Amino acid sequence: MDIQELQEVCRQVRRDIIIMTNKAGAGHPGGSLSATEALVALYFVVMKGFDPKDDKNPNRDRFVLSKGHAAPALYGTLCERGYFGREEFDHFRQLHGILQGHPDVKKCPGVDASTGSLGQGISIAVGMALGAKKTGNPCHVYTIIGDGESQEGLVWEASMAAAHYHLDNLTVIFDHNGLQIDGSNDEVMSLGDIQAKFKAFGYDVIDVADGNDMQQVLDALGEEELTAMILDLREPYRTPCRLVLLEQHTMAEAAQLCGRPPKTVEAQIYRAKKMLAQQILQRESDGKECVHGTV
Ligand SMILES: Cc1ncc(C[n+]2csc(CCOP(=O)(O)OP(=O)(O)O)c2C)c(N)n1
Ligand SMILES: [Mg+2]
């Protein structure tokens, strides 16, 4: 598949994320959209041995979505990869559907681990990688964690174990979108120098300047020594824009879409507008082009 085809798959996954979460009136569109390129790169290019018709191949690579609330992005990718049909999206987050709010290994084809409790997915991935090493299984284990998720102590316990057992068959992808449910990382609990922290825990780190750029994501995942990859998604205009777009809904609808009380959503939109205004001013003072209202 060439880069244009992969980008087209990403566009389709993005459409599906929006349609799924809108129809269900719940879910996490933001964290799903930010992880789209990483997931499509993994399932269409990087991971070996994935085949919807032969899901039980013991030597195939493994994937754990540690930030399990980004399930819509995983579902969109698995559908594009042929694990199930698009009609399943109609039952997203419904009782007895295969596409639960968080990935369920017993219900959804192609899912390798049930996740959703932040911090646990990376721990499962470490266990899988350790098990593979001990049994001589050549598979590689990939996991995506969120930046808010890294505030969980479990992430660092798992990382310490990964270093102790020399798990060079594990790659942690860190989705650094700068936001979590209650605001920006900096407002909730600032992460400090996250690259230095991963390095101190023994990872070989690559910082990807734009985690929504398919070529950059593929280049980083192609590196031999890679054990941790930081997807930087905090480029101005991305996330605030999405939040402000929610204003097109009534506050009750917007709150339902975010899965948060109206007051919290209102506060986030207010903050997003402030960020956007600052970014527009900054862009103008840097002499960069800026189209008001459509950024
Ligand atoms: C242990 C645990 N605590 C709280 C939650 C509720 N929760 C779901 S998503 C989320 C924010 C996660 O932020 P981040 O990891 O940055 O995700 P992203 O920005 O990618 O959506 C929280 C607190 C949870 N799922 N698990
Ligand atoms: Mg985040």
Estimated share of beta-strand residues: 5-15%
**Total number of beta strands:** 7
Number of helices: 12
Identify the bound ligands.
Answer: thiamine diphosphate, magnesium ion
Structural class: alpha/beta
Strand order of the largest sheet: 1-2-3-7-6
Major beta-sheet overview: 5 strands, parallel
CA radius of gyration is 19 Å
Helix content: 40-55%
Parts with pLDDT < 50 across at least 5 consecutive residues: 234-238, 291-295
Order of helices and strands: HHHEHHEHEEEHHEHEHHH
Shape: globular
C-alpha termini separation: 31 Å
Mean pLDDT: 87
Please describe what this structure looks like.
This protein has helices at 3-24, 29-34, 36-46, 71-80, 120-135, 153-164, 185-189, 194-200, 214-221, 239-245, 251-258, 262-285; strands spanning 62-65, 141-146, 170-176, 179-180, 183-184, 205-208, 228-232. The chain is α/β, with parallel strands linked by helices and 295 residues long. A five-stranded parallel β-sheet has the order 1-2-3-7-6, with helices on both faces. It has a two-stranded antiparallel ribbon with strand order 4-5. Strand 4 and strand 5 (183-184) form a beta hairpin. It is globular. The protein starts with a helix and ends in a 10-residue tail after the last helix. Magnesium ion is lined by residues 31, 146-148, 177, 179-180. Magnesium ion binds next to strand 4.
